[in-house]
Write a structure and sequence with these properties.
Elements (H helix, E strand, L loop, with lengths): L1 H13 L3 H23 L2 H18 L9 H19 L25 H12 L4 H12 L4 H8 L3 H27 L5 H6 L9 H13 L1 H4 L8 H6 L10 H8 L3 H4 L18 H32 L4 H6 L79 E10 L2 E9 L3 E10 L7 E8 L2 E6 L9 E10 L4 E9 L7
Antiparallel strand pairs: 1-2, 2-5, 3-4, 3-6, 4-5, 6-7
Length: 495
């Protein structure tokens, strides 16, 4: 049903029907505004982003090849517009600053109030990085998944799947870390020391520190057993309320399509399917284009230099044409003439008429005497030249893999690691049963900054036994780096 309605909206936009812009606003403006607020953390700027997004949609609807992807297309345009505004202001989204903590002793028993739990999840989400928050918003609250989510983010479906699994896992870990930070300081001295001077703001850095502490602390690790439906509570968070005047502003701006034309450049360039190229990839493409243009100029200059050399004065005689063939001085030709070739005395008389006895001799025949072979000049063996000393080449930098982790259960597992060093070409996780290397399995991992994540489905895992794994990073220069670990995927069937 949604696909049919989206097709009708796209057709109305292509026909420059004012009702089409009104329909797309009524159907998607609320969710787009909430999404932009999550990225920009500023309601006024988010309203401007939605305004420009809808104008771009009205101007570019004819470029969308598949109208059934209209919703993902709108989110992709909105995302680029938000990133553009953040870049223009030379700032990053202030996701490190969470709301003020209101309750230091939240009880997460069965009687916990839904509002308290939602507040906890909302504060815990502040401990995630910007990409994780964005993915959770799109998947849990805006209900994008699969190819639609990948199109909105501008990544491959496999990459989108890995980002989703990683974001959901990090949300659960963040809830446990925040709960421990608020209520566990009195039971663990090491945690109390770690949080000395804490102002209550839950940041990604603090979340990572507490999560590592939970993995090795027997006292604090017990809190992770509490059941908190973090994903369901996050999905139930209310949407941001649209400004009342925004609809009128959008419709007035879209009344004259010529006024909209300049907005089409906001999300440009576009791919062949009509989707805007993600802003981060645009810079990579522009660098590649500059490099190619420079290479073309150099090639042109080098080619022109060759032509100039070929057209120098005198080049025709020495290059274009072979040198004239000459007879060596030592090869003196001798002529053999027939005796009848001697003229008669009458031929020397003053009579202008030649004597009939005089006739033309045939052309002289030229023969060549054999030339003795040239005598080579005496040569002396060249003195050996000392080989120049070569300094050893410096070793290429290698990638460094740290914080390897591979955890999961009945529904699958997520591998993660931090990779630093030279530019990375690919990262993967390989795993096998402990001491059994005949059955190894692997999966690709995808980047999120310097962190890499990979998703492995349940049917590929080895359950209820020790599993060894290695996370390997391959740099663009060919060098490799890796880090190993062991884990156990626990999955108990029904009793």
């Amino acid at each position: 049903m949604r696909a049919v309605e989206d097709r009708a909206i796209v057709q109305a936009l292509c026909d420059h029907d004012r009702a089409g812009l009104a329909a797309v606003y009524d159907r998607y403006a609320q969710r787009l505004y909430d999404y932009c607020v999550g990225l920009l953390h500023d309601r006024h700027t988010a309203a401007d982003a939605v305004h420009d997004t809808l104008l771009v949609a009205a101007d570019r609807a004819q470029q969308l090849r598949d109208p059934e992807r209209f919703r993902a297309w709108l989110y992709a345009i909105a995302r680029n517009e938000c990133l553009r505004q953040l870049r223009q202001r030379n700032r990053t989204a202030p996701l490190e600053k969470a709301g003020e903590v209101k309750d230091e002793t939240i009880d997460l028993g069965r009687s916990v109030q839904a509002e308290q739990a939602r507040a906890l999840v909302r504060d815990a989400a502040a401990g995630l990085n910007p990409r994780e928050q964005e993915v959770l918003n799109l998947t849990l609250r805006h209900e994008l998944s699969g190819a639609e989510l990948a199109a909105a983010l501008g990544v491959s479906p496999n990459h989108a799947h890995a980002l989703t699994s990683k974001a959901r896992e990090q949300l659960e870990r963040s809830v446990g870390a925040l709960l421990t930070a608020r209520a566990g300081r009195g039971e663990c001295g090491e945690l109390d020391t770690m949080l000395a001077g804490w102002d209550g703001a839950f940041t990604p850095l603090l979340r990572k520190r507490i999560s590592r502490h939970l993995e090795k602390c027997a006292v604090c690790g017990v809190r992770r057993a509490h059941e908190v439906r973090a994903e369901a509570l996050f999905a139930a968070l209310p949407f941001a309320v649209l400004p009342i005047a925004l609809r009128r502003k959008v419709l007035d701006s879209g009344a004259d399509l010529q006024r909209v034309s300049h907005h089409g450049r906001i999300a440009a360039p576009y791919d062949r399917g009509g989707f805007p190229v993600p802003l981060g990839q645009q810079s990579k493409r522009s660098k590649a284009a500059v490099w190619l243009a420079g290479a073309a100029v150099i090639a042109l200059l080098l080619g022109g230099g060759g032509v100039l050399v070929a057209l120098r004065p005198g080049a025709e005689a020495t290059v274009a044409e072979p040198p004239p063939r000459t007879t060596p001085a030592t090869e003196e030709p001798f002529v053999t003439e027939s005796p009848s070739a001697v003229p008669s005395p009458s031929a020397t008389s003053a009579s202008p008429t030649p004597s009939p006895s005089v006739f033309r001799t045939p052309s002289p025949r030229v023969t060549r005497r054999p030339q003795p072979p040239p005598v080579p000049p005496p040569t002396t063996p060249p003195s050996p030249k000392p080989s120049p000393s070569r300094s050893p080449k410096p070793p290429l930098p290698k990638p460094v893999v740290t914080n390897p982790n591979f955890a999961g259960g009945c529904t699958g597992a997520t591998a993660s690691a931090t990779v630093t060093g030279p530019p990375i070409a690919r990262v993967s996780v390989t795993f096998w049963r402990a001491k059994v290397t005949t059955d190894t399995r692997s999966a690709p991992m995808f980047p999120d900054g310097s962190d890499y994540f990979g998703r492995v489905e349940a049917d590929q895992l080895f359950f209820n036994e020790t599993v060894e794994f290695v996370i390997t990073a391959v740099a663009e220069n060919g060098e490799k780096g890796s880090n190993r670990g062991t884990t156990t995927f626990v999955c108990r069937g029904p009793d």
